[in-house]
# Entry
Amino acid sequence: MTPFNAILKGLNEPQSLAVRTIDGPLLIFAGAGSGKTRVLTRRIAYILAQQKTRPDRILAVTFTNKAAKEMLERLELLLGSQVKQLNVGTFHSINARILRREAKNLEIDPNFTIFDTQDTRAIVKEAINACNYDPEQVKPASAQHLISSWKQKRYTPPMAKDESASNIIEEKYAHVYEAYEALLKKNHSFDFDDLLLKPLEYFEQRPAFLKKYQYRFDYLLVDEYQDTNLLQFQFVHYLSGLHQNICVVGDDDQSIYGWRGADIRNILQFESAFPGAKVIKLEQNYRSTKTILAAAAAVVDNNLNRREKKIWSDSPQGDKINLTQLHDGRAEASYIATEIQKQIAVGYQNSDIAILYRTNAQSRQLEEALRDRLIRYTIVGGTRFYERKEIKDLLAYLNLLVNPDNDLGLKRIINVPARKIGATSIEKMEDFAKKTQRSLWLSLQYPQEAGLKAQAANAVRQFNELIRYFHSLLNDLPAPELVR
# Structure
């Protein structure tokens, strides 16, 4: 069997065509359960088998770290050690790599900190305070959402001010945006939107930088294209500007992130953005029964802005879908728990049953109903690993060693574990930092000058010594050893 036959083995005709269509812009409409990950991974293998380019000149962009991990695992089965040379990751991780790699040329700190959602909320609160606004009127959650929305539309703080000039409340949020950006800069930090926005700004300001990355990759593949926003669209449009070898995979019927900036026009108008694009539809479903597909079609066919698709399956008809309507959440939880009891009584295992709910708040009543009936259960998901307090504390310590200007991280761990450095002492240090125009870390070197009492000043000195000791180990110990 030739390498090409091995790669194409087991694919249906539209899948095979998508794998074999290598050059030029390609839009693949991939319905639910239609094997899109298989197509993407086989397509990469096919490009390499055709000796069209080297592995390190292929860029595959996914929407989640989980999707990137799954893609790499499948590619390893196809490519072996070659997989290590591929560039596979999320939009955010790919752009973070570019920014760190080019930091010197772009005149930014290579050790910049990436603020997550919790961190940005804290910075937003600081910005509101810096503007002397009442957080009951200028709400942190609203400010965080509006700032992200402005960034995704590529509005700078002055542009946001102009847009909101006729709205007194929104104008306050624009001032918060300005203060927020100043705090990010002071902390040598980027938020998630910056990771998408900054490379675009550098592409436009520095033609040589753009050309370097247009020549850097010969083939670009993008997953879940229906959920891309303006920044992500412009990023892939710039990168593929020379060769136009861009393949995007998505399904307009599965677009669910409009509330956070996703623009369905990116997939619906792909052929306008990339003239001459080919379009392939993957319509065979390998996952669901005919009953489920019919129900899904009955709902999604009502969408006005969509591409016509006929999803079909060779699977059995399957059981009918039951829809039960109850008067409140408590009644729903009781009904679900009772139904599960019945299933367990006829021989089903707890692990055979799943409960899906829309918001985390709904889990409380469900859990109460299950516990009342002594039904064992496991919550899947919960707090993500990197969002756990102890993990964020540890990362804040490590980050302080490479980015001491990150005041937010420093305040997080200066009294963790407890060192008798209270809120009043930290506030005095912050005031001293503002007066002397120093970072908080540099201000910690002068605890007495900042007005700290003897006990707190001594605790600050001990903290300084601890951080300096860790810093002395930085170049001698690998990160895992340093953490231990």
Q: What stands out?
A: The longest helix spans residues 454-473.
